[in-house]
């Protein structure tokens, strides 16, 4: 604890008495020149005291328990020095590159014990003070509502005088941009032309169904390098029998750092009735009422209805077309997770046709700075059409090609070079996940898009 401070400093006193005192009394000599701060009093165990007058202060603590009391006095314990110069101004902000609607906390770091503060911004509109703070607060909170660049000035004053500091173009406010990247199993687009399939176990049912063993879930692990949210997952699946009242779900799990199995449940989708799932096979969309936050790798798992016998089968990749390590796991009837590739379990190297869309929201300036593709594509997931936005990018000789997950070209567009935004009509295509390849003199990139019907 400091013993030599300047006028205006708040000091915290910490009780270290033994034998469990139940009450405390602090006294200072002289008895003026200070105030108790932050709702503490002379009866607090650990009071905070602001010294307002220069001088030397002795401090006494009397501590009491059921057996009696004792006191300790530290003579001339606190020396309070008069302020000798005007404040040296410094401050920080909790964020400087933000989206419209964000609240920023400014923190005064000025020295020489300022006693008043005045914050000014230029331009003088487009923001509002938040949470009962004002331009005279030491650490104000400001909500920025209008896109633009703001300079910030702090004027700090003490008994000697004042000084100011201006940070020019300190806060940049941009429109928020949400982009979604649809992840897919690592083996879904191998050069050998892998296609989606499901395997029968004969009289025992289907390999990726709940079959005669009563399996409960099929989960696919995804490598995810960003933090974002999941609001939608598309699954290629087939109802073996759908004339009953059960439903299915998709669950999102974290990854166990040791076993790599699904671990903590992060969120569960809305239900999809079995009666709504095609017995011929289709892409089925699962939505989440509340977006599920993910940081790093995760699992997307399909819940298998437990009606007697097979009800639902999830499509996967061919076991003969996987050069890597399968990331698919299955929860058996005992509630334990087992990997498909483990020879002690199934011993099959395959992945599941599960496609989660991971969405991130960033400011427009961050999107440009961090995007290798340098174009935006929205909405994603889409229904019948989506937009490719080339704002700020050279657009001569643009080529937009759309491929399905088997690698077949399903659409090709050569838009006008004078068009910033290109509307891509997908109404004739089925629901599923597609790859969009964009080529310009500046761009040669691929992004994934989910189509929901």
Structural class: mainly beta
Strand fraction band? over 45%
Specify the CATH architecture of the largest domain: Sandwich
- Note the gap between the termini: 66 Å
What count of domains describes the coordinates? 4
Global mean pLDDT:
85
- General form: flat
- Sheet bearing the most strands, described? 6 strands, antiparallel
Features:
single chain, 453 residues, mainly beta, Immunoglobulin-like, Jelly Rolls, 4 domains, six-stranded antiparallel beta sheet, five-stranded antiparallel beta sheet, 37 strands, 49% strand
Structure characterization notes:
The strands form ten sheets. Strands 22-21-25-18-28-29 form a six-stranded antiparallel sheet, with no helix packed on it. The chain has four domains: about 80 residues, Immunoglobulins (Immunoglobulin-like), CATH 2.60.40.10; about 80 residues, Immunoglobulin-like, CATH 2.60.40.10; about 180 residues, Sandwich (Jelly Rolls), CATH 2.60.120; about 80 residues, Immunoglobulin-like, CATH 2.60.40. It is about 0% helix and about 50% strand. The chain is mostly beta strands and about 450 residues long. It is flat. A hairpin with a 4-residue loop joins β14 and β15.
Topology overview:
Elements: E1 4-6, E2 10-12, E3 23-29, E4 34-37, E5 48-51, E6 55-65, E7 68-81, E8 91-93, E9 97-99, E10 102-108, E11 116-122, E12 127-130, E13 141-144, E14 148-157, E15 162-174, E16 176-182, E17 196-197, E18 217-222, E19 227-239, E20 247-248, E21 250-255, E22 262-268, E23 272-273, E24 282-295, E25 298-303, E26 312-314, E27 316-317, E28 328-331, E29 337-339, E30 354-363, H1 364-370, E31 376-378, E32 385-389, E33 399-404, E34 409-413, E35 421-425, E36 432-439, E37 444-451
Parallel strand pairs: 1-7, 9-15
Antiparallel strand pairs: 2-5, 3-6, 4-5, 6-7, 8-10, 10-13, 11-14, 12-13, 14-15, 16-30, 17-27, 18-25, 18-28, 19-24, 19-26, 19-30, 20-23, 21-22, 21-25, 28-29, 31-32, 32-35, 33-34, 33-36, 36-37
């Amino acid at each position: 604890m400091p013993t030599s401070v300047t006028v205006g400093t708040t000091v915290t006193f910490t009780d270290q008495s033994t034998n469990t005192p139940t009450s405390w009394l602090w006294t200072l000599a002289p008895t003026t020149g200070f105030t108790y701060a932050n709702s503490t009093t002379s009866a607090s165990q650990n009071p905070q005291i602001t010294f307002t007058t220069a001088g030397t202060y002795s401090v006494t603590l009397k501590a009491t328990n059921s057996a009696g009391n004792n006191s300790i006095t530290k003579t001339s314990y606190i020396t309070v020095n008069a302020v000798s110069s005007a404040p040296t101004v410094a401050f920080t902000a909790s964020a400087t590159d933000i989206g419209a609607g964000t609240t920023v906390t400014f923190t005064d770091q000025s020295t020489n014990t300022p006693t008043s503060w005045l914050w000014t911004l230029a331009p003088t509109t487009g923001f509002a003070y938040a949470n009962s703070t004002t331009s005279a607060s030491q650490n104000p909170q400001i909500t920025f509502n209008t896109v633009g660049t703001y300079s910030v000035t702090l004027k700090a004053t003490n008994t000697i005088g004042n000084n100011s500091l201006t940070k020019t173009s300190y806060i940049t406010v941009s429109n928020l941009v949400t982009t979604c990247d649809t992840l897919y199993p690592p083996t879904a687009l191998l050069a050998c032309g892998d296609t989606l399939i499901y395997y029968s176990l004969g009289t025992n049912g289907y390999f990726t169904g709940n079959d005669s063993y009563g399996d409960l879930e099929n989960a696919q692990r995804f490598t995810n390098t960003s933090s974002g949210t999941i609001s939608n997952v598309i699954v290629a699946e087939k109802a073996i029998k759908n004339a009953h009242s059960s439903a299915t779900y998709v669950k999102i799990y974290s990854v166990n750092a040791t076993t790599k199995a699904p671990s903590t449940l992060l969120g569960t989708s809305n239900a999809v009735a079995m009666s709504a799932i095609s017995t011929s096979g289709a892409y089925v969309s699962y939505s989440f009422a509340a977006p599920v936050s993910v940081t790093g790798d995760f699992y997307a798992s399909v819940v298998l209805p437990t009606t007697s016998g097979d009800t639902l089968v999830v499509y996967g990749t061919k076991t003969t077309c996987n050069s890597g390590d399968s990331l698919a796991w299955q929860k058996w009837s005992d509630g334990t997770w087992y990997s498909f590739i483990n020879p002690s379990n199934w011993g099959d190297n395959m992945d599941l046709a599960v496609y989660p869309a991971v969405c991130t929201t960033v400011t427009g300036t961050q999107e440009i700075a961090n995007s290798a593709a340098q174009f935006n594509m929205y909405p994603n997931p889409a229904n019948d059409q989506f937009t490719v936005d080339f704002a700020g990018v050279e657009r001569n000789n643009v080529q937009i090609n759309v491929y399905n997950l088997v690698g077949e070209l399903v659409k090709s567009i050569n838009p006008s070079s004078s068009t910033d935004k290109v509307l891509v009509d997908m109404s004739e295509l089925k629901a599923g996940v597609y790859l969009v390849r964009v080529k310009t003199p500046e761009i040669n990139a691929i992004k994934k898009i989910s189509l929901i019907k």
